[in-house]
Amino acid sequence: MWPFSKAKRAVVDERAGLATTFLLDSLERNATAVINTAAGRNWRETQYDAFPIIAREVLLFELHIASRLAMKKQGENRATQLMEAIASLMAKRAPEVMRPRFQDEYAVRQLFYTKFADFKPEDDQSYEGTLFWEFSKLILKVTDQHPEASKMQGLNVICDDMLHRIDEGFEQLGVYE
Q: Is 169 exposed, middle or buried (0-12, 13-18, 19+ CB in 10 A)?
């Protein structure tokens, strides 16, 4: 049950709808960039079955990034309300292959990703132990790839791009207001 008025709920639902559409619209681009970096541009020859799994992991990662950004911009209560609405919509709007157990998988990934406080390192420090690093390791494991430095670096760059695109997109759409 929503702990606020119908008018406030309608505003949150509208913003959640905008955010959900934005994240789903960028999913194929982001998932393709991730699998190309992890498994190579010829991934369809060896990793064809991995794409739905990669896309699900990218979507869960995008949601976690969105959650952190909302928390930073809105504070805990407002961000929690927004993210609950987004997760609920996403469970209904995500590609059908991702829908079974979506809420459970989202909760598990949220719990896992919260262990890593930093998105990325400050300055020239190592990425190891950051959110981007852990996502990159997970993706390489799913695609049966070795954690080579070039692949890890490439995935970390994609993560940073996702972070900035989500933040800018949500700002432009008024999701944080």
A: middle
Q: Report how far apart, in Å, the C-alpha atoms of 169 and of each of 22, 76, 117, 161, 166 are.
A: 7, 20, 23, 12, 5
How high does pLDDT run on average in the chain? 87
In order of 1, 38, 80, 131, 141, the CA distances from 54 in angstroms are 33, 10, 26, 17, 11
Q: Which residues, other chains included, contact 37 with Cβ-Cβ below 8 Å and sequence gap of 6+?
A: 151, 154, 155, 158
Q: What is the DSSP letter of 174?
A: T
Structure-block tokens of residue 81: 């309300």
CA distances to 40, 49, 115, 168 from 33, rounded to whole Å, are 10, 16, 25, 19
Give the C-alpha separation, 174 to 4, whole Å: 20
Q: What is the pLDDT of residue 1?
A: 44
More confident position, 12 or 163: 163
Rg (CA), the chain: 16
pLDDT for residue 10: 86
